[in-house]
Amino acid sequence: MDRQRTAWIDVAKGMGIIMVFIGHSSLPKILSDFIWAFHMPLFFFLSGWCTNWKKLSPKEFLLHRIKTLMIPFFIYSTIVLTIEYVAGFSNILLWLHQGWQGYALWFIPVLFMASFIARVINIFGNKVVIICEAVCILLGASLRYTDVTLPWTMSTVPYATFLILAGWQLKSFSSYIEKPRIWIGVIGLVITFIVSHFWRLDMAWNNILPIIPLTIGAFSGFFLISTVASVISNRIKFLSKILQGVGKETYIVLAFSQVLSMTIINCTSIDRITRNLIVIILLVAIKYLKDFVNSHIGFKLLR
């Protein structure tokens, strides 16, 4: 059971990170809006689902997150900024002040802050968690409504904290995922499509209003992807292995897919399909380079 649960989670991450990749390419608006309805909330939900909140004290949890999230973040950010500088579109001063903004790497500092806040909240038990979830939603919506934009995408932290806490609570529905019910995926597809037709969720800019339908769309998208991921991990083993491999490399895709694509666009005039193939090849090469570095230094510095 544990192995199967891990399998569907990695498959879901693989599906999610592929959607991050194609969601930033030139898609018809109807498909782009559909993907954006849930592709980033999915990772916050899964973070809450996968975290053992009682395993580490808040201090130990903070240190663990610094090691696994923030150290690789600053290493990869340095590399990406260098690539941008060489390609001629880097603005280091803006980055120092504002962070990554629309780049997918915005996700990492937000995940770091939101997960630590969720860990602190988790100390106080379920009743307090529910109250804090409501506070997080109201705060996130208020920041959006008043058009308050904090540096480094910190305006998104309250809503991200809610999603992480909600992901932890979603584990009570694990039986509906590990033994997938197709009707749940179908309902998730329909609801997400309807929501995305009227409103677009963009967590990078804390565009989360109207918050109730967009949150419903995020939840329904989670159940859609988790159902499909569980079906794949149960029944399509070769595809499951591919997606699990992709899911374990989400950090690499978040860090480099956009800057590689932008660099190719800036330096060449090749078509979109060829550009995407080159980006995929380069991401695979970076993955093996990362593994090589980790193996030679003797510990997992890069994620």
Strand and helix layout:
Layout lengths: L1 H22 L5 H8 L2 H12 L7 H30 L4 H7 L8 H16 L3 H20 L11 H14 L4 H4 L3 H17 L12 H25 L1 H11 L2 H18 L4 H26 L6
Helix pairs in contact: 1-3, 1-11, 1-12, 1-13, 2-10, 3-8, 3-11, 4-6, 4-13, 6-8, 7-8, 10-11, 11-12, 13-14
- What general form does the structure show? globular
> Percent of residues in helical segments?
over 70%
- Detail the poorly predicted runs: none
Amount of beta strand: under 5%
The overall strand count is: 0
- Category by helix and strand content: mainly alpha
Task: Please work out how many helical segments DSSP would assign.
Answer: 14
Termini gap = 26 Å
H/E series: HHHHHHHHHHHHHH
Mean pLDDT across every amino acid position = 91
Concise synopsis of the structure shown:
This protein has 303 residues and is mainly alpha-helical.
Task: Give your account of this protein's structure.
This protein has helices at about 1-25, 30-35, 40-50, 60-85, 90-100, 105-120, 125-145, 155-170, 175-180, 180-200, 210-235, 235-245, 250-265, 270-295. Helix 4 (about 60-85) packs antiparallel against helix 6 (about 105-120) and helix 4 packs parallel to helix 13. About 75% of the residues lie in helices and about 0% in strands. It is mainly α and about 300 residues long. It contains 14 helices and no strands. The mean pLDDT is about 90. The protein is globular.
